[in-house]
């Protein structure tokens, strides 16, 4: 497999379960090590990093959001959002945390614990946490998979806004509708191989070029 | 949808003349179909002959004649609306025939054809997504509903192609053993 993702792209990775979608994200995030080959993210060759180097890389260059949020239940939203900044030795990240929470519409639940939040609020908290250190790359593994459609749409709109602001986003999904709605590039995997790497035409087409509503020709 | 029932349905709201019918019909379909005015007039004449519509008053200042629905037209419209669509599933795209022919012509390896068509379906879904967003932006929820149906068809097409690709890959592997 050989892939290159440009800065600022919104890429969707599709494929059936077991096709290697999540493994691909984990390799890029430095959570898994490739048995061979190289992963280079923002000019950093992950093979050359030791354990602590990898930990720093993950903390500072990668934002990761998961299907099931993975917030720490014993910490408030604000505390969860601040964890990566504290680990990175940035004690003064509160201003950015509040700014992010405001942007994501969760300022009013900053002092609540995750269990008291809706799924959509938890995912937005997870997005704020992923963005606190201004990562080069935002990885999203089925980010709307556990959400109702309304919360899912809101989360996707936020990811889209981030992308329009220049954020590089790579999203794993099995949902073709979601992938084609948000990503201009759709990478398809099967059995650990890239079977397609489609760059879609993003030009707006007129309704007549997209849809034809009729079942019989006119007499 | 045939123009005939489109015309009957629009006249059920209020009497209209030919150009108004054309404009309303096109607006209803969200610009996805441009109707020929000649076809509208021909349809109106046929409907009048069959007693389903009738002219209202006399020709206006620019020779425009408005039509209204007759009771018989109303019954025909209601019967049509109540009739669920059944009959044969329509597979109207060239791809279905290409697939049949390629099975005979391409030494059995369908994957290049399937891969190209998969791209086509992805692009179509992207375009449909855009159209749905646009319909919502313009408060055309009736149209957005149809586009959502089309998107689900797109998803099914993609799933079908993926199945065929998997099947072809397995066959290719067997052939190489």
Give an overview of the whole structure.
The complex is a heterodimer of chains A (219) and B (177). Chain A has helices at residues 21-28, 51-61, 77-87, 94-103, 119-131, 149-164, 176-182, 207-210; strands at 10-14, 40-41, 44-45, 62-65, 137-141, 168-172, 185-190, 193-199. In chain A, helix 3 (77-87) runs parallel beside helix 5 (119-131) and helix 5 runs parallel beside helix 6. Chain A has 219 residues and is of the alpha/beta class. In chain B, 68% of the residues lie in helices and 6% in strands. Chain B has a 3-stranded antiparallel sheet. The model of chain B has no long low-confidence stretch (mean pLDDT 91). Classes of the chains: A alpha/beta (219), B mainly alpha (177). The interface between A and B is medium-sized, with 28 and 39 residues.
Instruction: Output the structural class of chain A.
Output: alpha/beta
Total count of strands of chain A: 8
Strand order of the largest sheet of chain A: 4-5-6-1-7-8
Strand content of chain A: 15-25%
With helices defined by DSSP (H or I, 4 residues minimum), what is the helix count of chain A? 8
What is the overall shape of chain A?
Answer: globular
Strand composition percent of chain B:
5-15%
The counted number of beta strands of chain B is 3
Summarize this structure as a short list of keywords or feature phrases.
heterodimer, A: 219 residues, alpha/beta, six-stranded mixed β-sheet, 8 helices, 8 strands, B: 177 residues, mainly alpha, three-stranded antiparallel β-sheet, 7 helices, 6% strand
What's a quick, concise take on this entry?
By secondary structure, chain A is of the alpha/beta class. Chain A contains eight helices and eight strands, in the order E-H-E-E-H-E-H-H-H-E-H-E-H-E-E-H. Chain B has seven helices and three strands.
Topology:
The complex is a heterodimer of chains A (219) and B (177).
Chain A: E1 10-14, H1 21-28, E2 40-41, E3 44-45, H2 51-61, E4 62-65, H3 77-87, H4 94-103, H5 119-131, E5 137-141, H6 149-164, E6 168-172, H7 176-182, E7 185-190, E8 193-199, H8 207-210
Parallel strand pairs in A: 1-6, 1-7, 4-5, 5-6
Antiparallel strand pairs in A: 2-3, 7-8
Chain B: H1 3-11, E1 16-17, H2 18-28, H3 37-49, E2 53-56, E3 66-69, H4 71-82, H5 94-105, H6 111-137, H7 141-176
